[in-house]
Amino acid sequence: MKVHSQVPGSPLRGVVSRFLVVESPEERSDMHLPETGFIAAFRLSGECQVGDRRFASPAILTGLTDHLRRHQHGRNNTTLVVHFTPLGASAFTHEALDGLWNASVDLGDVIGNAAEVSEVVERLAEAADPAQRIEIVERFLLARLDRHKPDPLVSAAIDWMAGHVPTPVRVRELVRHIGLSQSALERRFRRVVGAAPKRFLSLLRLKRAAQLLQSGTSLTTVAHTAGYYDQAHFNHEFRRMAGLTPGEYFTQARA
Question: Does the first or last residue of the chain, that is N or C, have fewer Cβ atoms within 10 Å of its Cβ?
């Protein structure tokens, strides 16, 4: 398997966190922990099954999830993956994003132009190398980029949560910091992030914990540093989202 990773050019920074081009000559399966941003995937060759669904569409958009994502890649599968920042996907649509919680949908349906998506995928398949393919997707995204600024209160809420993850925090503390009622903040947050603040905070903690575990940090230190009350709480939350204990997940992931 070959993986080419690239950060976006300056116009898309703050919208896209990274691009990946993954080439799999042999059949393989993989699994991914929940992310804090939406993911778009362009299938350029071969087959790829997401969970128990095999998508006929060459491009899909996956919303935030609270469970492990499993992929089954066929022989000679090449996929270009776009990892959006927490507010990134909202820059391309005025539609509320909370309807995509735990869902993967045809990207053509989301943007209302399946022919345009098919044309992009054709150009991607003909491109000479990963860098050219990423450039094609960058142009596609820039052409659709909504120039409106992200919701400043939701942006401030995300920054506040990211800065407080090392300590256990509650949504009511966030509400006091932002200065909106809890219901008003939750409506705005769900619309542009795709999940309520409490759910997003859980994803943020899990992501921080996974990064620490990959670096070899002990479970006790991970639980404290990622903002869980104790190791038992961390183990419970990890198993609830991943369906596996942390040890089981990383053993399978390495395999």
Answer: C
